[in-house]
Amino acid sequence: MLAWALRRAVLPLLAALLVFPLAAHSQNSQNGAPVRIGLTPVFLDDQTAFLNVWREYLEKRLQRPVVFVQRGSYREITDLLRQEKLDFAWVCGLPMVENPQHMKLLAVPVFKGKPLYQSYLIVPASDQQTRSILDLRGKVFAFSDPDSNSGYLFPSYALFQLKERPSAFFSRSFFTWAHRQVVEAVAAGLAQGGAVDGYVWETLQIYHPELTGKTRVVQKSPEFGHTPFVARWSVPRGDFGAMQRVLVEMSNNAEGTNLLKKLNLDGFTPGELSLFDSIANMAAVVRSSIHAKAP
Amino acid sequence: MPRLRDLSFRYKIPLRGSLLVIITAVVVTASLIFQEYDAVKKDLIGNSASIGRVLAKTLIAPLVHDDVWRAFEIINTPFQAGPPQSNAQAAEVVMVLDPRQQIYVSTHPQQYPMLGDPARINPEFHALRSAITNYREFETSAVEMPNSNNIYMVTPIVSDGVLLGTLVMGYSKSIFLPRYYAIAGRAGLITLLVLAVLLPASWYWGQRFAVPLVRLAEAMGKIGTRIPGDEDVPAYESRDELGRAGTAFRHMLRELRENQELEREMVLSERLAAVGRISAGIAHEINNPLGGMLNAINTYRRHGDEDPVTAKTISLLERGLMQIRDTVAALLVEATVESHPLSRQDIEDTRTLVLADVHGKQARFHWENDVIDALPLPSTLVRQVLINLLLNAIQAIDERGDVFCHVYRDSDSFYILVKNDGKCIPPERLEYLFEPFSSGRESGHGLGLWVTYQIVRQLNGEIAVKSEPAETRFTVAIPFAAGYA
């Protein structure tokens, strides 16, 4: 165990030292191959113009072409990572803790000074009665993505804690495949309640207050590790370090600060894997509950 | 306040014209709107049927995957095409019903929430039942309910022959309203333009039609107090009803005036006849004792002594009685005097008789005698008439005045026309002109015209006088006596 930890701490250092001249060389040699970064709706990924600016920023800093890959669900991005078709991805903490053999933590967003975020339980603004998720029994509920912590795992966990099963508790529930759309579904009254990434809701509050204005936050979850940037397990150390550095250094220059402001983030930090322990625990509880309750 | 029907045609005609224009505009607009309603409905049904087919096909995958959010996004797409006001054909509500006819998803989840029964929310959906169950693949049916403000387009969502759900699109007929308003607005504008042209025109026509009528009515209103002259009646030169009414009215007035004149003349001649009878009666009554008295005087002269005082008295009496006899004789016109037929020379003699008076006044005497052969009329009486008229005329003129005399005949009458340019006879005197002692002149006994009148009447003739400034004319017409030929 100690050896493993030692190896884990020292080896990259050694490797970095050894490979440095090579890395510099290989960086040049790899100029033609693009860095493929998978994006999921853990942030407002529907701002194409912003993504172009961010991509240009990353290309300039990495000295390599960058390709953003977007898909309709978290699962597709996770699968692409597993198939090594992506180098990096901005995913949720849940897929990361469930696929430790395929991805490793690269960086964690810093939101309101902390690498943490919450899951919000929201209802339409017209609903002034609901005080907790228990008041939503028999209602229509919107989840964001089955692989989302804030948009699915936490509310399910909360219901399990209350000895309820999401599938029976609500009369109807559905996935919108994006946090923003959970807010839209609740705002339109399509769903009488929804679980949403608190960071996304707060960001929408800034850019689209007319949308969040139609919703009311009923409850905020405990804080979890923020939706992390991950690297596929096999990504070259040089690329890993370069990408991590570029992300972390975004808050050090005006251009990066501007982009971060758009993202409503303070910056990126390398982060600790332990930030996601609570998510892993909840996932384990929910999985065992489902298994336990399954006939 | 005057009632509408009492209004003058001046206002009635333009008002009626405007009313007609407005009625026409309303009817035309209504028919246009009706036509537009049909066109818009056809348009709407065509458009929404094609939208419905596309949506139904697109919805198959989300329904198969039970992806509510995708379905919600798809049915909302038609609404996001543009701002709502530009998208006049936007559906009021779009919903997907599951095969149990519960709401799978709708664009208005607050009104039509998931899993709800649409018929319970809106009874109109009961009527959709048959359209939903009797579906035909890929075919949109339009359901329009009486007493409903909505049209529903029902499209089945079918995959591999299995009904996955039903797409219902509800359109409010109120989307037609902006078009109606546009048409009505345009029609109103055109109506106003037409009115702007037609109102002055119909006002003008009304005036043209009404003014002669109004004047006709005014002229009619005057009858009673007096008979209006031709100048009071509008001259309306046309043969339409108005022109005919005007002409007939003028004709009627003329007859009225003639009747009035006739009546006046009748009164006059009756009075003259009465005067004639009284004077003849009195003359006879006077003549008998008068004859006695004159006989007595003769007898006395023959047998009485010649006392100078008595003789003087008798002579005085005789002269007075003779004057009475002359006067009475003059009053008593006797037409039965025997005389020869009237010849040209008789008339020329008359001229010679008055020439002395003509010269006395240095008058210009215009003489025309068109009589050539002898006429079957008593010459003595006709000459007396002519002399009387000529002497009167000469007397009426000023020094160096004009006197005109024309004597002529036609197939059955003899005519005398005597004119002078002397002072006009005042109208109030004209009426009594032929009565005895009415001359008002110092000289003469005032019986000349009386005698003339009596003679003409006894000869069954007519005498008329007309006096205007600068011309007074007497006309005499005497028919030839049947037994005198």
Helix percentage range of chain A? 40-55%
What spatial order of strands do you see in the largest sheet of chain A? 2-1-3-12-4-13
CATH architecture of the largest domain in chain B: 2-Layer Sandwich
Spatial separation of the terminal alpha carbons of chain A: 39 Å
Main β sheet profile of chain B: 5 strands, antiparallel
Question: Secondary-structure element sequence of chain B?
Answer: HHEEHHEEEHHHEHEEHEEHHEE
Structure commentary:
- The complex is a heterodimer of chains A (295) and B (485).
- Chain A has 295 residues and is α/β, with parallel strands linked by helices.
- Chain A has 2 domains: 31-115 and 225-273, Periplasmic binding protein-like II (D-Maltodextrin-Binding Protein, domain 2), CATH 3.40.190; 119-221, D-Maltodextrin-Binding Protein, domain 2 (3-Layer(aba) Sandwich), CATH 3.40.190.10.
- Chain A has helices spanning 2-29, 48-62, 74-82, 93-98, 149-161, 166-169, 179-188, 198-207, 209-212, 237-248, 254-263, 277-293, and strands spanning 35-39, 66-70, 88-90, 103-110, 116-117, 119-124, 140-143, 172-175, 193-197, 215-220, 224-225, 229-232, 267-269.
- In chain A, the strands form 3 sheets. Chain A has a 6-stranded mixed beta sheet, with helices on both faces. Chain A has a 5-stranded mixed beta sheet with strand order 8-7-9-6-10.
- In chain A, helix 2 links the parallel strand 1 and strand 2.
- In chain A, helix 2 packs antiparallel against helix 11 and helix 5 crosses helix 12.
- Chain A is globular and about 55 Å long.
- The two termini of chain A are 39 Å apart.
- With 485 residues, chain B is α+β, with helices and mostly antiparallel strands.
- Chain B contains 11 helices and 12 strands.
- Chain B has helices at 9-64, 68-76, 118-121, 129-133, 177-222, 241-303, 308-331, 344-360, 379-396, 427-430, 448-458, and strands at residues 93-97, 103-106, 141-144, 150-159, 162-172, 341-342, 364-369, 375-378, 402-409, 413-420, 462-468, 471-479.
- At the A-B interface, strand 8 and helix 7 of A face helix 2 of B.
